[in-house]
Amino acid sequence: MQSTGNKTGTEIRQGVMNASVDLDDMVYNEELSEFRSACRCGGEYLITESQLEAEKNNMGAGGRVKGEMFSAPIVYGSVAIPFGPNDPVPKDESHTHKWCVFLRGANGEDLSPIIRKVTFKLHDSFVPPSRTVDAPPFEVHESGWGEFEILIKISFVDSQEKPMTLFHHLQLYPKEDNGIDPDMDSPRQTILSEHYDELVINEPYEEFLEPLRRYRLQVQAMKTKTPPLNFSPEVEANEIKRYYTINDKVMAELEKVKNRLAKIEADKRKLEADIKVLENESLT
């Protein structure tokens, strides 16, 4: 068993535990955990408790700020419209729609104080498939004919914060439950699909405090304004209800298919039995 100074490994571990009374400050601190792991050898800590405490104090200088939490409401989604006869000919003649995928403040706030860049990962058929936007408006304009899922990666001004990832399904055609058959010709209409979410920064790093507070002041200054939102909690509730309705329809269709398959299997067994009877009769 290795030791440091006049202390045994057991005593050192006990000292570390005593120095780690505040688990929020130490054990859950990612950088400190990495530091402690690097200082282990054969199950023993090779540093004294005073050295560990000094490291804790150094890391606290630029660490997370306890008790602070910031929330930034956002709206993300897409808007699409079919090409009209007066529109320029698309670069690919198979393209039927022009569309835009976007991320913005829910009330029109400027997100640049807290967001460094937004990366939109499109379908692999687009060149290039990944589009990075490092200044507002955070959006990508394209054209195409098919619907697909878009990955939206949000990178914060403070690179110490982990990026946030969202997913959005690009919608080009009307939904069936709108009373319009998407397979039939319909009047040219704009298809808007957007969702509400919140960017929650809990206990940010000290370096991130000033940008977050600047953003908060901007939000407070805009509270008296009426935001021109297409989104509302009612819209989100209707969207959830629509998903449940679609799920019920799919389950009902699956049940019908199961019943048809069961009937086919029963008819098959009956035919096989009839064939055996006929074969036996022919042998006699």
Automatic annotation (TrEMBL):
Identification of the protein by name: Protein AF-9 homolog
Coiled coil regions, renumbered to chain: 247-281
GO CC terms, sorted: chromatin; nucleus
Pfam family, one: Zn_ribbon_CSL
Primary localization class, coarse: nucleus
Gene Ontology biological-process annotations: regulation of DNA-templated transcription
Domain YEATS per the UniProt entry, residue ranges: 64-215
PROSITE patterns assigned to the protein according to its UniProt record, in alphabetical order: YEATS
Gene, per the UniProt record: YAF9
Compartment(s): Nucleus
UniProt xrefs under InterPro entries: DPH_MB_dom, DPH_MB_sf, YEAST_sf, YEATS, YEATS_dom
Domain of life: Eukaryota
Species this chain originates from: Physocladia obscura
GO molecular function: metal ion binding
Keywords noted in UniProt: Coiled coil, Iron, Metal-binding, Nucleus, Transcription, Transcription regulation
